[in-house]
Amino acid sequence: MMQASTIAALATRLDDCALQARDTTKITDEHPDMDWADAYAVQDALRARQMERGARLVGCKAGLTSFAKMRQMGVDSPVFGYLLDTHAVPDGGECRCAELIHPKVEPEIAFVLGRELKGPGCHIGAVLAATDFVLAGIEVIDSRYRDFKFDLKSVIADNTSAARFVVGGQPMPVYGRDLRTTGIVLEKNGVPVAFGAGAAVLGHPATAVAMLANHLGARGESLPAGSVVLSGGITEAVAVAAGDHVHLRVQGAGSTSIRFV
Ligand code: OOG
Ligand code: MG
After folding, report:
1. Which of 92, 94, 111, 170 to pair with 36, CA 20 to 30 A apart?
2. Is-contact 169 253, C-beta < 8 A?
3. How far apart, in whole angstroms, are the C-alpha atoms of residue 56 and residue 138?
């Protein structure tokens, strides 16, 4: 287990990089013996710093939940992070590129919970029973690591590259729907650039939410009612720059969009 002072210093370094939009080397380069608990301890310390400044927790995210994403980033298992109100962009709103290092967008299915979800033992059925509705979600990721190169422990410490997100469209109840065959189209500047279906995420996107609830349960946390949960990029992430307009259509759930300025 890392020393508390090391954990605090790493969280400060990652927080400062995000605040100043500058990158850093991945932390496992200097701390090769860091374990999973250390990585999540750094993430917890980062969250505490941001919440001390007044940010509110609004939900959680699962990442690296599709083979497209795992292949793109060269890793082999999902990771989990948190979402704050300071990450949220209104539907159709602006994202300022000057505040980010090297942003990319991901098409996701966002779950909004009507009831608390608590692991262990959480499964797809429990997730669907607790879900009020799903929405179209675009996550803007922005790794604080140079050239977006990291390993799993480094990316966990960095709150799984979370930077901004937008959700919107037409709230879609899950009852009577098959989220595996729910299609998505991601458009950049009016051109369709990525396509997929819910099954790209671990066979069913609710699996990612169940894994997240079980992960939190093991740490004594849960997903409260009202949480928004990003279930993970369905396709590879797409790089964006100022001037880009990104639009996500989710079959049966309308669409959401974000402008990069
Ligand atoms: C890590 C975060 C991945 C997703 O949806 O797969 C993620 C990264 O690729 O930088 O949010
Ligand atoms: Mg994501």
Report:
1. 111
2. yes
3. 20
What domains can you pick out in the chain, each with its CATH number?
A: 56-260 (3.90.850.10)
The H or E element containing residue 205 is: helix 205-218
Quote the CA–CA distance of 66 and 256 in Å, as a whole number.
21
The string of pLDDT tens digits covering residues 31-62 is 999 999 999 999 999 999 999 999 999 999 99
Q: Which tokens in the block code for residue 126?
A: 């429990």
163 residue type, one letter: A
Instruction: Answer yes or no: are the C-beta atoms of 208 and 199 closer than 8 Å.
Output: no
| Ligand 1: lining residues by beta carbon, under 6 Å | 61, 63-65, 69, 73, 106, 139, 141, 143, 155, 160-161, 232-233
Strand stretches in 45-161, DSSP E: 57-63, 79-84, 94-95, 104-113, 131-141
Q: Are 61 and 160 in contact (CB under 8 A)?
A: yes
C-alpha to C-alpha distance for 199 and 213, rounded to whole angstroms? 19
CA–centroid distance, residue 63 to ligand 1 (Å):
4
- Structure tokens that stand for 178 in this block: 């098959």
pTM (2 decimals)? 0.98
